[in-house]
């Protein structure tokens, strides 16, 4: 069963038979990518979880409870996929360059939220940027911006 099929079934079950829209799929895919970044070092710290919830609330205009539920659903999707490339594929081909850069910037923000950029996180961020189709200059720009904004 494909990841997209599992995602659709996950949402159909949660929304009592209402199929997932492309916007819902994109929202969950972005959230799952960010959860994946938070988890890559083996655990999600309280700082990462708090930051993740705040980022999703801000990005999608949700309250903190709704964003917290999105984190839980995204965690399930991340667990099912286990692969950043599969999650990037869920974003679809309509994601423009500026949006892909914003997603990478958010991923850097999550990775830096606990004050430590682990080797696993650094490698994943590079891999995510490449999976998003970004060039080395965009990857370096995202890294530099995150290091300037780090706590």
Automatic annotation (TrEMBL):
SUPFAM superfamilies: TerB-like. Gene3D superfamilies: TerB-like. It holds the Pfam family TerB. InterPro entries: DjlA_N, TerB-like. Residues 27-143 form the Co-chaperone DjlA N-terminal domain. This is TerB family tellurite resistance protein.
């Amino acid at each position: 069963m494909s990841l997209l099929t599992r995602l659709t079934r996950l949402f159909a079950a949660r929304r009592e038979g209402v199929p997932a829209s492309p916007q819902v799929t994109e929202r969950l895919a972005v959230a799952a990518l960010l959860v994946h970044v938070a988890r890559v070092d083996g655990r999600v710290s309280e700082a990462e979880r708090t930051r993740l919830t705040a980022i999703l609330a801000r990005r999608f205009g949700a309250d903190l409870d709704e964003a917290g539920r999105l984190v839980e659903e995204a965690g399930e999707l991340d667990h099912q996929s286990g692969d950043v490339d599969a999650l990037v594929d869920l974003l679809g081909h309509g994601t423009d360059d500026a949006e892909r850069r914003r997603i990478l910037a958010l991923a850097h923000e999550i990775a830096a939220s606990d004050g430590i950029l682990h080797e696993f996180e650094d490698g994943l961020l590079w891999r995510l940027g490449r999976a998003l189709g970004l060039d080395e200059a965009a990857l370096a720009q995202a890294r530099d911006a995150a290091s300037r904004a780090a706590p």
